[in-house]
Sequence to fold (525 residues):
Amino acid sequence: MEHGKKKDAPLKTAGLLESKCSRRSFLKGASIAAAAGSAALVTGGCGSVASSEESKLKWQEFFKKNYRLMTEQEKDDTVNRLERLAKLQRGVDIQMSNQEPINNVLYGYAFNVTRCKGYMDCVEACVHENNLDRKSKTQYIRVFEMDPGQLDPTSGDGKYYHEVPVEDKFYMGVQCFHCENAPCIKACPTKATWREPDGIVVVDYNWCIGCRYCMAACPYWGRRFNWGDPVVPKEEINTKQHYLGNRMRWKGVMEKCTFCVQRTRLGKLPACVDACPTGSRVFGNLLDPDSEIRFVLKNKKVFRFKEELNTDPKFWYFMD
Amino acid sequence: MKILTLRFALLFILPAAVLLLCPFAMAGHGSVLERIHDAEQPFDNMQVESTYQLPVKTVRAKEIYQGGAFRVLARKDSISRYRCSVCHTRKTPQVRDGALITHGDIKINHGEGGNELACIECHDRQDRDFLVDTEGKKIDFDHSYQLCGQCHFRPKRDWLGGAHGKRVTYWAGERVVMNCTNCHNPHSPAFKTKMPETFSLPLDK
Fold:
């Protein structure tokens, strides 16, 4: 009896892998199935391993590669699977993209500390755009109310809630600075985080093991951890998603600002820039000499936060 | 003997020089500033095809920025009682229409305290469909930046370059920026105090 079940299992699951069955993938499938089969025996045999479409997709998702090692075809496949899974699991129709970076683009960001009034429209827009967890109130952007002369957000008040702006205070927004020489990338033991050619530091959520080394390595507190499964009301889910951006995360993975990769690679401004009512946020292509961001760097007084750490962030503060 | 001491000295000088130059060499390697410095060629913003359609009415600005021509948001459509010449005619107004047709709701809070601007300092006295600058030149409502820039020349310079004001929706494609009056109420241009949109929890308890 036991013997027969073990023999059945490889046949069942090898079919699941669908692809042209090379020797390598057959062996992989077979060994996985053997392991699964014996596990099923131990737990009393749950026969539903491949019974539904959902578990089939989940199975294929589990054995996918790191995003950077995927071929174009594999990227498209996983995106299609995730779209289908979102429909099956949450009942939402999403459009996920795996849009590649635009050539000759390096994104840069500038923040006007003189103009920001602390209205926090940016934070609200970011939460909705990036499907952030409403339960733990995760926010990629923090805005600090600061005393004049201070330039370190640790000295500011990050949890103000009163009429703004207050006389004799200024406001400073902090988020991921997308360092060119990013400590978080070096700290990651699974290579789940890297810098894309257009300068955006992204996370492959499937390869993140949740060790939080990157969180400890980041000198700017730019990373957020999912302590529980993120809660987003179904009708508030942003359905325009990107594989490396705002697709739904789960418990135990790291996430961070991606300069709204799902928007910027289509030529749009990030949600925070679009939402700012004061025009304190400037975004653009650093490699374009005519861009707004280059004008700011050339004509305004700019500084970068903790520049002495040699992290080379692509986020400048400037003043009028 | 002398050569020997010189050689001996070199033994220290060379490593010291290497050590001193090392940080410079490391910092310069592919850093952001270096890449920015090397980027001289203008980027073809029109190659990003998703930016072609903007669902708002824009007009071509009468000035240029560092990248050439650009567009601003049209303003006249959003002025509720434009064209002004509908009321501002030679016809004598009726007293009973007074409350409806005057601008009693407008409080001017623009200019030094106690010395606010008068209506006709910006609006053309003869032709109410236009604004007027100090030299008497008519200015279209869609191009109010030409008027504001008379006094606020520094913000205007920044606005032209991109350090003040906002682009509309796209960073790529044809440059479309907001007009002065999209954000500032011309009769009371300062931003109001209000409650923040949301709040943050403390980072660590």
Remarks:
- Chain B touches chain A through 49 residues (CB under 8 Å).
- Strands of chain B lie at 58-65, 68-73, 131-132, 138-139, 176-177.
- The radius of gyration of chain B is 29 Å.
- Residues 45-86+102-183 of chain B form one domain.
